[in-house]
Amino acid sequence: MKTVLALLVLTAFTQAAKFPPNFKKCNRRDPDADKCYLEAAQIGIHEATKYYSQIGLASLAPLEITELKIGAGSQGVVNVDQNFKNCKLYGIDDVKLSEFGFDFEEKALHGRGVLPEIKMLCEYELNGRILLLPIVGTGPSTIILKNINVTARFDYNEVPKNGKTYFSFISNKLTLDPEFVSFNFENLFNGDKQLGDNINKVLNENFKEVFADVQPGYEKGLGLVLQQIINNLFSKVSAEEALD
Ligand SMILES: *[C@@H]1O[C@H](CO)[C@@H](O)[C@H](O)[C@H]1NC(C)=O
């Protein structure tokens, strides 16, 4: 009897530990469902910053990314692969969503909003050319994006498991339109400060051109990271649990 009770308590505990706290449920037939999804997403993002790491979900404050590879641009401005490691992204949790919801016919989750600022701290490795100038180095980097208009769409499949249905997100389309971008790559050219400062200055004076060339790379990289986070969340919450 005691063992059974202990088992029951343990099961209840692990189940509670697996399910995100304060998860807001919405009714898909509610005419105001979109309002509910928007609220649920804002609450979810808020919870993610506080509790998600305790239940094995990614925290968003900061969002940690072990590896982020952004390929060279296509217009010849940024002729270098940007290899980032051990990134910390600050500001994702400050997103102000204006729209968020499911499209059940198209099997997609979509959102739109504004991010006041993303600060991305990483270790970088660069070896190539930007704006025809050689750029070589490895060290800490800080990239700041401001007033970013974001749209996102994540397509899913419905996967039946243990009598429930789970959303499995299979692709994404993310757009990031920042008003302002700044770059700071420390320790360029083996620590040659004058050369490094000059390159950073050129990058910042031409941030529009530079960012535009690698924008698809950033969109793909961040899109994939967010897709993984959403997948982790929805591997813990079935459609039946998430929606009425
Ligand atoms: C973001 O969207 C707003 C409203 O549509 C627009 O006024 C603004 O110019 C956009 N900003 C960028 C950086 O695209």
UniProtKB/TrEMBL annotation:
Coiled coil spans: none
Signal peptide limits: 1-16
Keyword Signal among record annotations: yes
BP GO terms, sorted: circadian rhythm
Keyword terms, alphabetized: Biological rhythms, Signal
InterPro entries in the cross-refs: Haemolymph_juvenile_hormone-bd (IPR010562), To_sf (IPR038606)
A GO cellular component entry from the record: extracellular space
SMART domains: JHBP
A Pfam family reported for this protein in Swiss-Prot or TrEMBL: JHBP
ATP-binding keyword on record: no
Family from the record: Belongs to the TO family.
Name of this protein: Protein takeout
